[in-house]
Design brief:
The complex is a heterotrimer. Chain A is mostly helical. In chain A, 69% of the residues lie in helices and 3% in strands. Chain A has one domain. Chain A has a two-stranded antiparallel sheet with strand order 1-2. In chain A, a hairpin with a 2-residue loop joins β1 and β2. Chain C has one domain. The chains are: A mainly alpha, B alpha/beta, C mainly alpha.
Chain lengths: 267, 322, 261
Amino acid sequence: MSTMPLLRIVPPVVRAARRPQRMLERQMMCYRNTWPILLSGFFEPLFYLLSIRVGIGKLVGDVTVGNHVLTYAEFVAPAMMASSAMNGAVYDSTMNVFHKLKYARTYDAVLATPMGIGDVALGEIGWALVRGLLYATAFLMTMAVLGLTSSWWVLISLPVCVLIGFAFAAVGMASTTYMRAWTDFEFVPTVTMPLFLFSATFYPVSSYGSWAWVVQLSPLYHGVALIRAANAGTASWGIVGHVVFLLTMAFAGLWVVSRRLQFLLLK
Amino acid sequence: MSANPTHRTSGAPGIREPLIHAEGLVKKFGAFTAVDGIDFDVQPGEAFGFLGPNGAGKSSTMRMIGCTSPISGGTLRLFGLDPATHGREIRKRLGVVPQLDSLDSELTVEENLIIYGRYFDLSRAEARRRAGELLEFVQLSDRAKSRVEPLSGGMKRRVTIARSLINQPDLLLLDEPTTGLDPQARHILWDRLYRLKQQGVTLVLTTHYMDEAEQLCDRLVVMDAGRIAAEGSPRRLIEQHATREVLELRFPAGANAENEHFAIGLGERHELLPDRVLVYVNDGDQALASVIAAGAKPESALVRRSTLEDVFLHLTGRTLVE
Amino acid sequence: MSTPASLRVFEWKLLVYRRVWRSNIVTSFLQPMLYLLAMGLGVGSLINKNPASSQTLGNLPYVAFVAPGLLATTAMMVASIESMWPVIDALMWGRQYEAMSATPIEATDIVASHAMWILFRSGIAAITVAAAMALFPDVRSWGLIAAVPAAMLSGLAFGMPLAAWSVTRTREMSFPVIQRFIITPLFLFGGAFFPLSQLPLVIRWFGYTTPLWHGVELCRAWATGSSLGALAALAHIAYLLLWAAVGMFLMRRLAQRRLFA
């Protein structure tokens, strides 16, 4: 396995993982008791998309991107989908992980069994992805019901959401390993909110004029661009760039996570 | 009773290899040395204890044995295997009861056991079956569907013990199993641990309670400041390092030191503590009579049998629970 | 002697807040500023291009329309967060309320102190939002000073009934659901981002009954200096006070039952 050079981008402890799916099983057990919370999340896109469609969308009217004319809701919906993937992943990988790491000692208990650091890291990030996929599916269905989808290619937005989730969950979990107390988490919305607002979410990247390159530094922007392309069913070489950006972020996060967890849990 | 693990002998057949073998074991955290070169062996079927005050290095030793803390020096073998290379295989055969409860507060009591079994790769049905039996064993069947949070400290500890048995371990590690529990809860727990011991489970525990060590351990080491100060069965340690009886004299507050001279030459030796003077003698009543005859006026006097507390005091000059 | 006792409870909350106030003020200034930049100016530039919208917005540039709405929603958000987790924390985890119940402090004091606390926190939030608003020429006005207490009152009107609910809880499970099904929809459909007149009739009337809409209307009228009759203003204030009073009454009863029965 280690002979395959491509796998070197995966940290060794993660390669040593054998049963990460057990962590998913644990999460599912947890949600067996609190599933209304999970379910309630499905309604969030409905509220947001409706408020855009009947509210701001009516005020804005139509938007012209390139040579496409879109209603404002059609323009914003893919961005909302990407943002929701980001927010879900960040939520799962920050506060929740911190609680298990510092207070509940969940991972200490897990590591006393044949499970290893790689199982924990992959399992927890994996859960963020599974949950993200569920939410993305709900989001897509809501979009379809509200008539905001334009082609079958939009189905590609589902794996894109998983990729966005992977990138943000890995980096979110990595930052969590550096948090000392709950108050440190104030820093999380300080990062995610500007990303949400300024990733060409609410208006085309062209509106930023010569500042457009700053927007392109935002990982969410790349997610938004991918989902917009999927929904429009247009392909371009730029897509490769977006995917590489998010993958790089994901694996960088994974490296930090595996090192830090080892440092924190296997002292 | 499935909580009774059938012991698998490891290594070459016929050779009775120790379950744990430690030689010159060291644990350092930066410049601080928590465990400073200790040697010990634990044999199959025995109940082995680490007795010592907080900070003696007991928990660090336990974490190294549990393969969740890499050793800083020396040798450590479990079942003849090296934790650094075979951690997963070793942990498969261990049961761990950590010092601080790590039960999953998001799950019910039963779910806690089942998911733990799943970490050991048990099938769902098997994990469920064992969970039921183990909850019966720790007398918590009626709380199976309850969440963990409302349980008392003693109940949580029993759930943790049940959880640690889900893989039918060859070796059970208990880090201060009864610290912080009320007397009644401690006795229930001791009873369950005693049963496990009778079933042949090898127990390794740390404690700073001498009564716990005396109740549960066949053999123990006294640890202080990262080193082993003495080793043996509780009875032998008391014989070796203390007298048969102890006379405790309490003088009025602040007057213990000035009355110390009454104790000198009375028995084998004496200890001056902040609140009392201990005199180590073979006949406590006789010693008390001669102290009174010499004109001492203690506020109270007590004759009792020596305990491991006295052994520890003698070896280190400090009390166990401060 | 209930006022001094409630002040002492308030003092305890202040002590805790003293440790985090700096970062808290920075974020509560930055967040609305970013919102105003992105929504007010960014989305606003799209909206202002659409001639059909200017009448709907009462001839206001969008940033001037949305900013006062942000003032009221921020106060509501702060008040609602403070009325959920911190309340159950003081009841069950930190047990400060339980500790207080063993002193001469009474349920009335706990309710009064919570009201003071909401006014304090939503006040700080409203002032920082107003400060951020003052950076935008289209929004800047002396009316902002009057809008701040209006925002605080909306916070109180929403926070007190919510605190009354929290006092009865033993688990925090309902809080995320409340956030999703009550607070988020209010935030989105409470008249802050677009006029309720755009909504279908049924939803519109539902919007009119929420305290948030009345808070938004007050803030917007005073911050933009648009004409709002004295009677209408009084009606909005009275309606918000009614919510706050009912909330306080309920919270007192329920806290009494939980802590002193």
